[in-house]
Design brief:
The complex is a heterodimer of chains A (about 160) and B (about 130).
Chain A: H1 2-19, H2 36-39, H3 44-53, H4 73-87, H5 98-114, H6 120-125, H7 133-151
Chain B: H1 2-29, H2 37-46, H3 58-63, H4 74-89, H5 96-101, H6 109-128
Classes of the chains: A mainly alpha (about 160), B mainly alpha (about 130).
Chain lengths: ~160, ~130
């Protein structure tokens, strides 16, 4: 019985070590002018909020924590990033047309107002991602200003 | 005799005003947003059941309330239309679990196209208005 436990523990350990060699590709690239916080004029607190609460999953640049590099956590994180970027990739912000920008802005507003974004588990692990009431207000003000601007723009 | 006449007139007036009252309350009750008939038919078949003010499905009506759809602001409407196009396009709606129970509510490819085309063109048209 004891032997069996030792063998299975050893097998698990080996499996754990082996899986470390299989890692998802890192979501890291150069920050470009297409990134929302580079291409848009916004107050510094809004910029900071984007950086701290959104861009890890909604851009081409994730700030990884040490344990994000350990499988299977690395794969879970990778899944979040893939989904996040599919929904909205803020690294491509400048390339979106006005219609897509309005949709994205309204989406962001709704998620923030309802508190569905940033995701709760993410906020638990990243305290700086918590958006207090004032920051929420500042972001929504920026969103409203930006979307009004886009709506009132004459067709190019 | 006059009394009887009065009574009849009053009764008649009551009857008419009650009917008018009912008529003025009811139309909004089942009113779907203003949209072409083919779109309306698809929405009534597969969406309206959960996405309306009186729905018991809180999550669905919070996401999209088709009964109050035409009261949305321009930007909100563009957003809602965009979400409709997206969720239908990616087969996220109607939900798979719901379709297991009500397979007849499944959207055909033709119906999907009707919804998606409408939502997209309507959304883009709103940008220019």
């Amino acid at each position: 019985m004891k032997k069996l436990i030792i063998i299975s523990a050893a097998a698990l350990f080996v499996a754990f070590v082996v899986t470390q060699f299989f890692q998802p590709e890192k979501n890291i690239s150069e920050s470009t002018e297409n990134l929302v916080i580079n291409s848009e004029n916004m107050p510094s607190e809004v910029k900071e909020a984007f950086q701290n609460a959104c861009l890890d999953c909604h851009s081409n640049n994730t700030k990884y924590l040490w344990y994000h590099k350990i499988s299977p956590v690395s794969w879970m994180i990778n899944q979040h990033i893939t989904n996040g970027k599919k929904e909205l990739n803020l690294s491509e912000w400048k390339t979106l047309d006005d219609y897509d920008k309005i949709k994205a802005l309204e989406d962001m507003k709704q998620e923030i107002e309802r508190g569905t974004m940033p995701l709760k588990p993410y906020v638990m692990m990243h305290r700086e991602a918590k958006l207090d009431k004032e920051t929420q207000k500042a972001i929504i003000e920026w969103i409203d200003k930006k979307s009004d601007e886009l709506m009132n723009q004459p067709e190019e | 005799m006059i009394r009887k006449k009065h009574f009849v007139i009053t009764l008649f007036a009551l009857f008419v005003s009650a009917g008018w009252l009912k008529a003025s309350v009811n139309p909004t009750e089942t009113k779907a947003p203003v949209m072409p008939d083919n779109v309306k038919a698809v929405i009534e078949k597969s969406c309206f059941g959960c996405h309306n003010t009186d729905s018991k499905n809180d999550k669905a009506k919070e996401k999209l309330d088709l009964k109050t759809f035409d009261t949305l602001g321009k930007k909100e409407m563009i957003h809602a239309l965009g979400e409709i196009a997206e969720t239908v396009e990616e087969n996220e709606m109607p939900p798979a679990k719901f379709l297991e129970k009500f397979p007849d509510k499944k959207l055909t490819d033709a119906e999907k196209k009707i919804l998606i085309d409408w939502a997209k063109s309507e959304g883009k048209a709103l940008m220019k208005k």
